[in-house]
Structure formats: C-alpha cells, structure tokens
Amino acid sequence: MFSKILTTALRRTTPKPCHVHRRLRRFSTAAAVVGEQYEEDSTGITMKGVKISGRPLYLDMQATSPIDPRVLDAMLPYHISQFGNPHSRTHFYGWESDQAVEAARAQVAALVQASPKEIIFTSGATESNNISVKGVLHFYRDKKRHVITTQTEHKCVLDSCRHLQQEGFDVTYLPVESDGLVDLEKLRAAIRPDTGLVSIMMVNNEIGVIQPMEEIGKICKEFNVPFHTDAAQALGKIPIDVEKMNISLMSLSGHKIYGPKGVGALYIRRRPRIRVEPQMNGGGQERGIRSGTVPTPLVVGFGAACELAMKEMEYDDKRIKALQERLLNGIRSKIDGIVINGSVERRYAGNLNLSFAYVEGESLLMGLKEVAVSSGSACTSASLEPSYVLRALGVEEDMAHTSIRYGIGRFTTEQEIDRAVDLTVNQVEKLREMSPLYEMVKEGIDIKSIQWSQH
Predict the structure, then answer these.
(1) What is the Cβ-side half-sphere exposure of residue 240, based on CA atoms within 13 angstroms?
(2) Digit-coded pLDDT (tens) for 73-98
(3) Which of 26, 344, 398, 451 registers the highest number of CB atoms within 10 A of its CB?
(4) What mean pLDDT do residues 111-131 have?
(5) Is the dihedral angle over the CA atoms 212, 273, 100, 6 positive or is it negative?
C-alpha cells in the first residue's frame, strides 16, 4: 500500500530526465549531476554515449535483484513513522524498532534453520566474509595459522585471504574440477593441524554451481575445523540447513533475494561456539561483533524478503528452471558452438553462464545493450581480463572471453526470455559473419592444427 502511494506521488512530482536537463543552467551544480543521467526522447534512451530503443531487459540477477513490492511495504513505516533507534532503551520509539529488528532476526534464522541468537546483522556479504575470514584467524592466531579456500571464491574472500598472507598466515587455494566443483579428497589432504578455517562458497556467483555442502561439512567436523561459506547467491534459492551442513559461519546478503541493498547478515554457530575478533570498534551492538546502529528499515526489509523466500522458494525454483530451459533451448536451436560453463547437474537454474565460440567477447557484450547481462561478477566486470573463475575451470582464454552470464529471477517473464534469445542469436550470427575463423570452421578446417606465423 505504502509503495503504491509513494510511486504515485513520485510520478506526479518527478519530471522526465531529458526535460530537466534542458532547463538547467549549463554550469550549475545540478546540471553536473543531471548531466550524468540518461536522456530519454521518442526515439529511445541515451546514456554514456550509447543509444538504445528503451530500458533494457534485466537478466543480471546475480549482480542484484529488484526489491519485491511486498518488502518495500514492510519497510516504509520504519522510514516514516516508526523511525526510532533500536538501541534506545528508554522510550516507545526505541522499543518498537528493537521489536521489529528481533522479528526480522527470527525471519532470517528460520530460512537457514538457525537460532535467532546466531544471526548478526551487517552491511552485506562482503562485510560478513571479512569478519569470518579475518576474524576467526585473528582470534585463534596463537594456534591456527592456516586457511583453506578455493580458486573460484568471491573477490572479497580471496582478498581477505591475501590480507592474512601479508600478516604471515598460510593459505591453500584449492583448484576445482572442470565442472567447478571441489575435489573432496584434495580438501581432506589439504587440512593441517594448524588449519583454522575452511571457506568454500555454497553457490558460485559467476557459474552457479552448487558445492557438496554436507560432504564438506562432514570433513570439517571430522577434523574439528570451522567451516565458513559465502551463501549470498544461495539464500532463498536452495534449501539451507546449517545443522545438516555443519556450517560454523555463513555470509548472507539482502539485495540478492529481492530485499534492500546495504544490509546482510552473518550466521555464527553458538554450539560449539565460534569466536571472532571484531573488525570494527564502536558501541558494542550485535553482541560486540558488529558495532554501529542497526538500520531498522533495511533489516525489516531483509527479514520480509527471507520470509517471502521461504514461502515461495519451491514455486520460484520450478518457474525459474522452466525459464532457463526456454532460454537455453531457444539459443541452442538456432546457433551452434555453445558451451555451458560449470556443472550442468549441480547448479542453480537462475544462473546460466554460456560461452559462444568464434565470437569476440567485448563485441558481443556491446551488441547486447538491450539486454542487461554480465560477463561475470559485478565486482570485477570493469576488467577486460577473462574471468578468473572460468580460468580455474580450465576454460580456454578465447572461450572465457566470450562468456555471458544470464541471471533469471522471480519477476522474469517468458516474453523477456524470448526477446533475449532473439537478440543473442542475432548478435552472435552477425559477429560470426565477420569472423574469418568461423568461415574456416564451416569449411572443415581444424583451427587448432594451424601453425600461425608471427610477424
């Protein structure tokens, strides 16, 4: 209800960007701000020198997801009327905000089969990963000097491990198989008496593969090593049970499950108790692990998103699987030379990472401006280097450069999938027509057998 009122009010009061741009003085501060926004007219939208016919289709759900209107409805009262600080213990405004935060804590905990007392609110999965990796090793630094992770982890986990290496800790970066999955025997062999943490992502953000969590958890339990997982891409999409998986610490994010940006959570097991050294000092909120005022509206939104995910996970999963099959079959039926990156059997259906042979990757992305897709993680998308995740899988550099990640979600429609198929096929065919390599392949020439001369 609140979101509808707000949307109507904004429509009445907000002028179109192109008209604002024309009215502002050329050198005013406001002009500098608006000038960086897009311009829209009857022929389309222009932004950063690129003109497209309208707002692109959104198929980049791993980068972020749109907020569910029901989540926004739950949040709005805590922005407007119930705005108290949840740490104010002396009056009604603080009490009602505190009550809302604790209700949200219970909603997050229920989705992962945990106790509300084991949930710590943070600003997102990056902060939760930093607290987990650095915090555990710093707390147990006298006895534990070794971390095990994989080569395909999110950048914030890898960078946290490199930070520990600079402090004198040892890190083992496990390779993955060609399907993106961890070899359990290599994991077992890597564990040492001084191993303080195993950190392995539940669902990979680039290729969508689901690691064998219960088996990894059993190995960690056998050696009495804490097990951390980055579950930002798994929460609300696949069932999570922290007891069955023997998870000690788990990083969660709000904006990946149709909740607000800027909020996440860290699950920390109470029995047996896991201790971490706080990465930020302050007022001692969140059991002293994450100081700072808890943002009530964001936390309420995160809790509401978790409750919705728990109710609709099965329905969403069936629908997203059908859309993924429609996308994959639609592209495969019209063009060849397509490779699925990562395990086909063990993957989250909403993440489809494809490589297109004989196509230059940057040209393909530039040609798909009417579809919002990615070539990999949003955190590394500015780099022209091929994805380190795909390289870890052993994907050849030319194919890694042509990878496209399609992210399908709760609000994706069949019409959007069909349009994405048409645009992808048209662009790939267009680029292949200009490719001498593709011409040689069609003539039956084995490109790999050619000895190219150097000039």
Answers:
(1) 31
(2) 999 999 999 999 999 999 999 999 99
(3) 398
(4) 98
(5) negative
Is residue 379 flagged as an active site residue?
Answer: yes
DSSP string for 317-358: HHHHHHHHHHHHHHHHTT---EEE-S-SSSB-TTEEEEEETT
State residue 252 phi and psi, 5-degree precision.
Answer: -130, 155
Catalytic position from the list 18, 161, 306, 379: 379
Q: Is the dihedral of CA 356, 358, 363, 368 positive or negative?
A: negative
Domain ranges of the chain: 67-306, 312-437
Mean pLDDT of 180-201: 98
Per-residue pLDDT of 203-252, as tens digits, reads: 999 999 999 999 999 999 999 999 999 999 999 999 999 999 999 999 99
Q: How far apart are CA 162 and CA 454, in angstroms?
A: 38
Q: Is the dihedral of CA 238, 158, 206, 183 positive or negative?
A: negative
Q: Which residues are registered as beta bridge partners of 264?
A: 122, 253
Q: What is the bridge-based pairing of β-strands 146-150 and 249-253?
A: unpaired
The CATH code for residues 67-306 is: 3.40.640.10
Instruction: Tokens for 121, please give them.
Output: 């609110």
Are 56 and 371 in contact, with CB atoms under 8 Å apart?
A: yes
Question: Can you tell me whether residue 265 is helix, strand or coil?
Answer: strand
Into which CATH architecture does domain 312-437 fall? Answer: Alpha-Beta Complex (3.90)
- Tokens found for residue 91: 């009056």
C-alpha torsion angle, residues 26, 27, 33, 39 (rounded to 10) = 10
Q: What's the rounded Cα separation, in Å, for the pair 343 and 353?
A: 10
> Are β-strands 57-58 and 371-372 bridged in parallel, bridged antiparallel, or unpaired?
parallel
Which of 396, 416, 398 is closest to 406 using CA atoms? 416
Half-sphere exposure at residue 136, Cβ-oriented, CA atoms within 13 angstroms: 30
User: 87 near 287, Cβ under 8 Å?
Assistant: no
Give, in order, the Cα–Cα distances in Å from 120 to each of 132, 298, 387: 12, 14, 32
